[in-house]
Each structure stands twice: as structure tokens, then as C-alpha cells.
Amino acid sequence: MSEAVKRRYDSTRRRVQAGENRRRILHAAQDLFIDKGYGQTTIADVASAAGVAVETVYAAFKNKPTLLHRAWDVTVGGDDQDTLLHERPELRAVLDEPDLPSRLKKHAAVNTAVMRRTARLHLAVHGAAASHPVAAAMLIEIDRQRLEAMAIHARAAAATGQLAVSEEECRDVLWSTSDGSLWHRLVEQRGWPDNRYAAWLGQLWVSLLVAP
To answer: How many domains does the chain contain in total?
Structure first.
């Protein structure tokens, strides 16, 4: 094997290993932030749970705030791709649906899947916000991004001519019912299955937002 080929092989292997380490670190951080809380979780805890050295965590993410932000991004998207949620295929399919009641029901199904991934971490960030400025600032940013996303859905809903309310009210209803708190109460606390919750949320949106 030539030296050039060997270097390419070693470089590829290092990149693959680094990517795997990042995924393990993010998964471990997410679990620890949920189980122990952001304030009680240390970089050493994350390293131990991920099976890597502390230095590896610092090299990949620099500090705990960056780790929290990246853990949130990956949790929302379900992977480590840098693609906004509303630009992903599942939500593009929602926006491409011309019938507003059907669109809202599809949106509710996607939102339920997102809540399954994110609601626990969102609650952990919310719980840390009172005593940790990093978490408080992140919570504000999460809500801002979600409001922008719901404005996109409201604008598209208004364009169908099927809205019973203003575009602004549609945005605010979607925003206020999609942060994970309803999912947590009905699914986690009351034991509803996800499919029941998705059907209920879709019907709620249709009843509130669609012209008869």
C-alpha cells in the first residue's frame, strides 16, 4: 500500500471515528440533561456516559452551552444534518397539501413525532432556565424559532383561502399548542398513545382554524 493511499485511509477512518464520537457524546448529553438536569450535568459526566475522554468532548464542542445547543438541534431534527425543520421532506409534504384540514392533520402527526423526540429535553431546558442564563436564553431562542416556523405555516394556510381566523391568530394558535406541554400532559402523564394525541391535535386545529 502506498503512503498516499495509507494516509487517505487513515484520514477517512479518523473522520468516521470523530463523527461516531460526536453522535455518542450528543446522545449521552441529551440523556443526562433530561435525567440529571443541565446544571447538575458536567462535561466529565458526558464523557463517561459516551465512553470518551473529557478532552474529546471539549475538542468536539468546546463547552457545555455549545453542547446543549447542539443536542437540541439534533433532537429537533432527529439527525445531525444542518437542515431547518420546516425545510425537511416531512414538513415540505405538509405544506404541499392543498386541502387545509388534511394539511393540519398531517402537521399534527409530524408535530407529535417531533414532540416524542424533543418534549423531555425542552422541559429540562425550561427547568434550568430560572437558574442558568444559558438555558434561559436558549428557551427564548427556541420559542422565537418556533414562532417563525408557525408563521410560515400560517401564511401558507391563509393562502388556501380556507382559514376561519386571521393569519396572525392561526400562527399564535399553532405556536401555543405545539411546544410539547400538551403532548407531555396527555401522552406522558395521562397515557395517551401518540396516534390518539396526533388525531386529537389535528382535529383541534381544524375546529379552531378552518372555515366551515
So the answer is: 2
User: Distance between CA 80 and CA 91 in Å, rounded?
Assistant: 17
In a domain, 106, yes or no: yes
Short-list 125, 120, 118, CA closest to 140: 125
Q: Exposed, middle or buried, 46 (CB in 10 Å: 0-12/13-18/19+)?
A: buried
Q: What is the mean pLDDT of residues 189-199?
A: 97
**DSSP element (H, E) containing 94:** helix 89-95
| Residue position matching grid coordinates 458526558 | 46
Q: pLDDT confidence of 170, banded at 50, 70, 90?
A: very high
The gap from C-alpha 143 to its chain's centroid, in whole angstroms, comes to 12
Residues 145 and 198 both lie in one domain: yes
Cell of 183: 403532548
pLDDT at 198: 98
CA atoms within 13 A of residue 61's CA, in its CB half-sphere: 23
Predicted confidence (pLDDT) per residue in 78-117, tens digit:
766 655 666 778 889 999 999 999 999 999 999 999 999 9
